[in-house]
Design brief:
The chain is an all-alpha fold. The chain has one domain.
Length: 356
């Protein structure tokens, strides 16, 4: 079997990193008004689609309006989560100087707070991508997606609970940084609720908004609006689960040992980002709806670059990878998602680490 990734010497690793740094510097100089105009259009699209969706649901006594409302609201939530919120919170548009698009102030329409996301995702995941014991995004702590992870009998159930997790993915994001193991003698419910009060406040607001306030405003259409809001949230969770898992847990992605946290020589971080990520091919609309996380490799290499530029960067990143013998992991959504499903089912059972 041909190795997926050529082992690089220290000098090759340094030159690989230097090539990525040069590309980063070049595109950084190009960022400007066009990027600002783009994200403002995205911001408006989220608002308008949200208004259209909620208004249509209020009129759902006319059957087609329920489906229109769910579709528009789901689109608004997906775009808010993926192309707007995720990328703004990364600070990609801080250069604009707009408080509504500032990475440290932006709050999105999802159960999890942006403050928690900055800690678990922006810092932990992007600093320690796929490093065991450091990156909490590896199977979100309860799904075995790599053979190198220690096997436990309860993983036998993961094909089942992973299926339900996909429908409630935003809950995984919201509760990700909570310590679910209380101190001996501590009331479990009090232990959970005393942690991170900001997170619980956000959860209460989101649940109240979608499942109480808007349904009550609909009057006799309460149940119809309630069901529509629930459907939109489930659609958003399913889509986000698929895109994120396809970007991290496909056949060619690599889990790094805990010792990799000490590999801080020039270029080593870039090598880990390439080996720990996978792309999904598709058209412009698909890339947009994925928040351009279909370009997961570019996102991991350049998290501070506006995501709408990843398609521009991709051919050059692919060329650099080819030059240094690093597989540029990319494939259709159907292929990548099949590999994710296979990994979840295969690693539910004991499995041996593979050779890369």
């Amino acid at each position: 079997m041909t190795a997926l990734y050529k082992e690089l010497t220290a000098d090759e690793t340094r030159r690989f990193g230097a090539a990525i740094d040069q590309l980063h510097a070049e595109v950084k100089q190009e960022i400007g008004q066009a990027d600002a105009d783009y994200i403002r259009r995205v911001h408006r699209a989220v608002r308008y689609l949200g208004v259209i969706g909620r208004a249509a649901l209020m009129l759902s006594f006319i059957p087609p309006f329920w489906f229109i409302g769910v579709a528009a609201l789901a689109l608004s939530k997906i775009i808010d989560n993926m192309e707007l919120g995720h990328n703004v919170i990364h600070g990609q548009y801080d250069f604009i100087g707009d408080k509504h698009l500032n990475g440290k102030q932006f709050e999105w329409d999802i159960l999890g707070t942006s403050n928690n996301w900055r800690k678990t995702h922006n810092y932990k995941h992007h600093t320690y991508t796929n490093i065991e014991g450091q990156d909490e995004d590896i199977g979100y702590g309860f799904i075995r997606v790599f053979a190198e992870q220690k096997w436990h009998p309860w993983y036998l159930l993961q094909p089942l609970y992973s299926f339900f997790f996909a429908f409630a993915f935003q809950w995984g994001v919201a509760l990700q940084n909570l310590n679910v193991k209380p101190q001996p003698g501590t009331n479990y419910f009090k232990h959970l609720t005393r942690q991170n009060p900001e997170a619980w406040q956000k959860i209460k607001w989101q649940l109240g908004k979608d499942y109480l306030i808007f349904p009550l405003l609909a009057g006799p259409m309460f149940l119809s609006v309630l069901a529509g809001n629930m459907a939109a949230n489930v659609i958003r969770s399913l889509w986000t689960f698929i895109i994120i898992f396809c970007g991290h847990f496909t056949e060619k992605t690599v889990l790094f040992p805990a010792s990799a946290v000490n590999d801080n020589e020039p270029g080593q971080w870039y090598v880990r980002q390439v080996r720990g990520s996978s792309n999904i091919t598709g058209g412009k609309l698909f890339h947009f709806l994925s928040g351009n996380l279909s370009h997961q490799i570019e996102h991991h290499l350049f998290p501070d670059i506006p995501a709408n530029r990843y398609a521009q960067l991709a051919p050059r990143v692919k060329a650099i990878c080819a030059e240094y013998g690093q597989t540029y992991n990319s494939g259709r959504l159907s292929v990548q998602f099949y590999q994710v499903i296979y990994a979840i089912c295969r690693h539910a059972f004991p499995s041996r680490p593979r050779s890369i």
